Amino acid sequence: MSYSLMALIAEKQSEFSKGQRLIADYITKNYDKAAFMTAYKLGQTVGVSESTVVRFAAELGFDGYPQLQKAMQELTRSRLTSIQRIEATEARMSGDEVLENIISCDIANIRKTLEEVPQEVFNAAVEAIVNARRVYIYGAGSSRALAIFLAYYLKMLMIDVNLMSTSSETEIFEDMLHIGAEDVAIGISFPRYSSKAVKAMHFAHTRNAPVIAITDSQISPIAGLATYLLLAHSDTAAIVDSLVAPLSLINAIIVAISLKKKDVVTSRLLELEKIWEEFEVYQKPEA
After folding, report:
1. pLDDT tens digit string along 108-118?
2. Nearest-angstrom CA–CA distance, 33 and 35
3. What is the pTM of this model?
């Protein structure tokens, strides 16, 4: 609902009480600050009671204030510039609190991801990758690191992978020219969402290729294109994207594929180990 939150507030404006209009006005102008306030703090800031804030959330159609707060946070993550992220981080924590806050946030993201990813969707996505003629992977910005990591291990697992590394839209479509229903496209996108990732997954969708979307929310612009939607929480207002939960999800995908292709993978790894040893790819441990 977060993408339509502002439109919803505007639509309901005439129905608000005087106090609710104060809340609506503050959220419209300062959603990045309001997103991390408790109902009590938001009420205190605009000069109304906590109960007025709770009724305001209900008036918008939310079950309670936590749902409204979540919608504001999703809106914040998708819209904040890097400078605004720094300012939001400074407002939420001091330098001495950074280590504990960031790691605690990452732990919470992993826990929520585990609770919310449907096992049957995860299994179906893994099966689609295993059976695909070719897997096309695209991630831009910080998500590119996840795309590279996933492509590296899928290649090791004998999966035919096309890691699209170009930033040119024309070259992306050229790379995907032969994609079809026998292939799979994996799009990885987290706030701020890449428009190129959206276009790449849309292209795959128009060619009838199954799309696996690894993203953070149902309102992500690639979520609606997904055949298999895998949501990984990345909640943070810091300058860096929290990609711990997405990486953990990708690790699970890799391990699940390795178990499905155990015999082939074992043979492949034995061959690689001989090559690595022959050409001294890795430093040998001291005796």
Report:
1. 899 999 999 99
2. 5
3. 0.75
